Amino acid sequence: MSDDQPIRVVLCDDHAMVRAGLRALLAGAGGIEVVGEAATGQEALNLAAALRPDVVLMDLQLGDGMDGVEAIRRLRSAPTPPRVLVLTTYDTDADITRSIEAGATGYLLKAESADELYAAIRSAAAGRTALSPPVADRMMAQLRAPRPTLTDRERDILEQLAQGLGNREIARRLFISEATVKTHLGRIYEKLGVDTRAGAVAVAKEQRLLS
């Protein structure tokens, strides 16, 4: 892309009003051109293949079907992949981590100003990481936070939890008693700061404690 050519952008958001607002907003930015709009992840893939944009502005929640993270992964695996800039209201550690791991160049919150959006699109088009300040703060905090230390047996049980197994099934698979499974679960919950099975799996995935 030469300096005198506009940055070609495809919008992907399942809300038509949001897309219309973004299109109007970007019309006021010099050097940025919206070349297509998608309401689903599949539409974004089709438009990216046909139009070859420089940047896809991607929401994470896209209703039924493919979510934004899977769309990012597929976009980035294309022969001529566009840069993908997440634009969302969600800033959980899991959403941020999954998006970056899928190949997103940046992660921006919808609460940011127009100037910050313009700058993020230009950074993404140039291949530079663009993060909202709150997102950057969360990522730094996550990197600085020490990971919980789990025993090998606790990791084994977490792996089984992630597969959706119940206590009895875990006990049978690991050749231990259900009482032992419950004891290990209590220790896992305490170390991860959660009180449910789903919470334990979610935190384990966020902190990459699962293989």
TrEMBL record:
Q: Does the keyword Hydrolase apply?
A: no
Q: Which residues form the Response regulatory domain?
A: 8-125
Using the record's annotations, give every residue carrying the modification 4-aspartylphosphate: D59
SUPFAM superfamilies named among the record's database cross-references: C-terminal effector domain of the bipartite response regulators, CheY-like
Q: Which Gene3D superfamilies match?
A: 3.40.50.2300
All copies of domain HTH luxR-type, residue ranges: 143-208
Matching entries from InterPro entries are given as: CheY-like_superfamily, NreC/VraR/RcsB-like_REC, Sig_transdc_resp-reg_C-effctor, Sig_transdc_resp-reg_receiver, Tscrpt_reg_LuxR_C, WalR-like
Cross-referenced CDD domains: LuxR_C_like, REC_NarL-like
Keywords from the named record: DNA-binding, Phosphoprotein, Transcription, Transcription regulation
Tell me the SMART domains matching this sequence: HTH_LUXR, REC
- Enumerate the Pfam families for this protein: GerE, Response_reg
Q: What is this protein called?
A: Response regulator
